[in-house]
Request: fold
Amino acid sequence: MRNSKLFSAALLFLVLLTLSCRKDEPVSSERLIIGISADIKTINPLYSFSVDEGSINDLLFLSLVRVNWNETIGNIETEPLLANEWQWSADSTSVTFFLRNDVYWSDGIKLTAEDVSFSFELYSNPQVQSKFYGTFEKLFLNEDLSIDLKRSIEVLDSFSLKINFIPNTNIKLVDVVLPIVPKHIFDKYEYDEIPSAEINFNPVSCGPYKLKKWDRNQMIVLEADTNSFLYSDDMIKELIFKVVPDYKSRITQLKKGEIDIAEQIKAEDTEALQKSGKLNIVSVKGREFDFIGWNHIDPKRFSEAGELNKNIYFSSSNVRRVLSLAINSEEIISEYLINFGQPAITPVSPIFKEYFNNKLKSIAYNPAEAREILKSEGWSDTNNNGIIDKNGTEFSFTLYVPGGNPLRQFASTIIKNNLKAVGIEVKIETVELNKLIDNLFNKSMDAWIAAYYIQIPLEYKMVWYSDLDAAPFNFVSYQNKDLDIIIDALGKKIFYEKEVELHKQFQEIIYADQPVTFLYWIDNIVAVNNKVKNYEINPLGVIQHVWDWRLN
Reply:
């Protein structure tokens, strides 16, 4: 579970990496070249924790249904993919899927309902340690959190199966949207052999593309699978994920047409890229926000009685609100993001138009009010050294910032100066990403800057629930029983109107408590060559449903 958490955290805490020069690939009307910042670790949906791994695996391994983003309502919709159709039971406690009978694995074996059932078994098995382990609480489970297949999944015949859910749970079709893997390949391994198996690097797939070659630290090449039911003569025949670790090289190659698409473009480069005449700029809003984490417990963790000690600085919601008041996040947005971003108010993005609580407004920069609240909380500069103190303890802490991220380096300087103005001393320490992740799980830091990449559909328990064992990404150790009641209620069967109300109440509690200082939603700026047509870029991702894209 430890490794699973670390890789998941690497996904949740995205750091904008820089890109480097590689041997150029010849341009072809038959191929699309995608610039990525680093090589992937695996080609296996069981372990595809990074964004690039997920994008590649989604082209190789299909799910029962296709998920689309509906911009009008700000939510997801589904349509058939591996399943031609599905039918819910009258009480919505089960759904029966009817599969296509023309889906083949890349080795020529036909995909059946047994593959689907076996995939759920693998994803939930503790020895396999997939990225989805521990997330199937709406299905019937064994004590080790693996799915109880006899109660949860019934294979009716080769191309139909029934999935049963625990009664009175809030079921959505996306709860069973998992990439399907081939049983006839994976059942050759013992479960504990799968994490290091050769199949992680040489997959047998069922998607519109299959792996052609993988040159480590150079490129991953996918080719259209002519046996796929999604294949068409005019689809893009070859996808090259080209590893270009140096950011400036990526920009140069975009301008020259040596790569066709790249994301995480800096706002300052958008004008020059557009002037090249070869590129379109697309700004995707709403899935990643930067925040300052305030540890609610003392990094030393435990008292002599074995209880968690409160953090002397950050356990008070009033003080956390002061910190939000004292930090000028709008300055960072206007000066660095150049308005390719917007203030973050809660962890619910404005893209969720029906769930978003638009009554809440961002906390305006107000150092004068911050100083008054600090004084009422007992923090004052008793020795006139410029740093406020309370009961002999100065308000002085270290803010940890991940290396290799210019935005967070810039932001940390603003934050340090802002807090100095209200008498708080901040020391900045840059730390390598993997070390930062270890520190987060160990809860060994007072404060840090990082980002959350929010789930679609919205899911709160893993980050904001009071039971820290059930919330592995609750790094600040935030606890609020009223919020727990809302999170639990959202997991039960409720009317849609009540669900919307609960989402808004969740935001109101978070806003009042300020468990972290929400800084800003960061737009993902994507550059796309003009020759690419019919592409789809939205909050679900950049590289998605590429079989529908076309080249001039």
